[in-house]
Amino acid sequence: MPHPLTASGPVTSTVLAAGTETVKAAGTVPQLVIAALAGVVVIIVLITWLKIHPFIALTIGAIGVGIGAGLAPAKAVESFGTGFGDTMTSVGILVGLGSMFGKMLVDSGAADRVVDTLVRKSSKALLPWTMALIGALIGLPMFFEVGLVLLIPIIVLVAKRSEVPVMKIAVPALVGLSTMHAFVPPHPGPLVAISTVGANLGTTLAFGIVLAIPVIILSGPLFATFAARWVPIPAPDLFGSRGGSESGSGSSSGGGSGAGSDPAHEGRQARRGRPSQDTASLPNGKSDFTRTITEPRSPSFTVALIGILLPVVLMLAAAIREATVPDASGTWVGLLDFLGTPMIAIGLAALYAIVFFAIGGGMDRSAVSKSLESALPPVAGVLLIVGAGGGFKQVLIDTGIGGVIADAVKDSGVSVLLVAWVVSALVRVATGSATVATVTAAGIMAPIAQGLSTPETSLLVLAIGAGSVFLSHVNDAGFWLVKSYFNMTVGQTFKTWTVLECLISVFGLLGVLLAGVFIS
Question: Pairing between strand 15-18 and 21-24?
């Protein structure tokens, strides 16, 4: 029997097996295909041409697909609402808790402590590798945009004080950040893909971390050498007087090791009891990277690292238990499975951050409350997009379009993983949004995932994630953020940022395809 990743089988385009249920197609096969294609086109046009928010675009596209495929209008709305609710139940809580954890990590100074310690202990030659590690660690619990704002001043200061070309420092950090965003939960993209295709979170997390290591090495420190030659720009002057008199006070400008060359010396001094204003004016003339550090102390490196790794360890432990001793029972098994439940693992990390990062770092109750409250508004848009993507997926299933897509892929004999990457990459290039690409591709591929094993379904999620970062260009907000932060031309941004995103995507795909060979 052919393997499900490349199998061809009997055509069942009028029905879709969904668990124990059989969903009959709402219309003829040509009608379903036209409705699906038209829906995706409408979503892309609304986002790229009319500049409609992706949430509205996905909602209109999903309901339009349902009606066009033959569902009654009320049934199409009901189907969308069901998918929206199911996705928010499985993903929304995790995104909210993860955002709170990330906010605590930043506001308490724990993120700065991790960065300070790793950079201080690195030699000049190891700085690119250290920055890749920092990007990955910061990217593990934090959204890409938040991590980028946090890392930019560190990248600039490290490049200036070590006298290493800025691209050798920037590229590894950006790669670490972007790779985690694409492959590793609890980021919204991987989470919604896991929920949509029914993958095991622990297995996907383990595979994602293993895949991220070679991808970061190849796309980060190794590519950084070429990027520095292609774009030999100086480190941008984002800090005004901060890089002058302050940087020379009590620190040396050479090397990369020793306390004297610490690029965040001022921040540590502030936490020793001297409040200081740390301001960076961005290229757009705004000072939206402005934070006043008034904490008398910050969490230790060990405390900060435990908090970052806590949810990962808990979820991985539960996944390893399930894979190695699936029939085990007893109190310890129940406890391990409970703690490894994603909501519990990330919730415990958030509580840990409140107690050990915030309160332990000197923040009072009012500051903690304000920090937690401010963590949620920025992710509201992401949650709506994720929920709408779940609604779109459910419409595809309820109309029977999913069955048509599944049969077409199976009959083609092409690897399901490659198809998932291509679909995700096409939506990414068209819309500029990794999240939209992930939720759209996951919805399209969900019916196909039903015939895959648990490891294969996790690889499907990673293939979608790899495609979601392909070819970042002028319709991607991240493209312009990086261009502005580093004062690059559009051409220079293509040579650095766009290339590194393509490398992450292609190396990720190759890793997934290679793993698929061994798993099969």
Answer: antiparallel
Instruction: Tokens 């704002």: give the residue.
Output: 149
- Give the side-chain half-sphere CA count within 13 A for 179: 33
Residue 417 DSSP label: H
Q: CA-to-CA distance for 450 and 410, rounded, in angstroms?
A: 12
* Secondary-structure breakdown of the chain: helix, strand, coil percentages, each rounded to the nearest 5: 70, 5, 25
Q: Report pTM.
A: 0.72
Map residue 70 onto helix, strand or coil. Answer: coil
Q: What is the model's pLDDT at position 456? A: 92
Instruction: State how far the Cα of 485 lies from the Cα of 148, in Å rounded to an integer.
Output: 10
Six token digits for residue 202: 């622990």
Here the tokens at position 164 are 């290493």
Q: CA–CA separation, 296 vs 269, rounded Å?
A: 9
Return the residue matching tokens 């070309």.
165
- 289, containing H or E segment: strand 289-293
pLDDT value, residue 297:
66
Paired with 293 in beta bridges are: 276
Who contacts 303 (Cβ-Cβ below 8 Å, separation ≥6)? Answer: 110, 356, 357, 360
Q: Say which residues have a Cβ less than 8 Å from residue 518's Cβ, sequence separation at least 6.
A: none
Give residue 27's pLDDT.
63
Residues of the chain with pLDDT under 70: 1-27, 238-297, 410-411, 520
Structure token pair of residue 82: 């069901």
Residue 121 DSSP one-character state: B
Q: Based on DSSP, count helices (H) and strands (E) in the chain, helices before strands.
A: 25, 4
Q: Give the separation between CA 304 and CA 359, rounded to whole angstroms.
A: 13
Q: Which of 418, 509, 518 is nearest to 214 (CA)?
A: 509
Task: Identify the pLDDT of residue 238.
Answer: 58
**pLDDT score, position 420:** 92
Identify the pLDDT of residue 295. 41
- Which pLDDT score is estimated for 458? 93
**Angstrom distance (rounded) from CA 444 to CA 189:** 15
Task: Tell which phi-psi region holds residue 9, choosing left (phi > 0), alpha (psi between -120 and 50) or beta.
Answer: beta
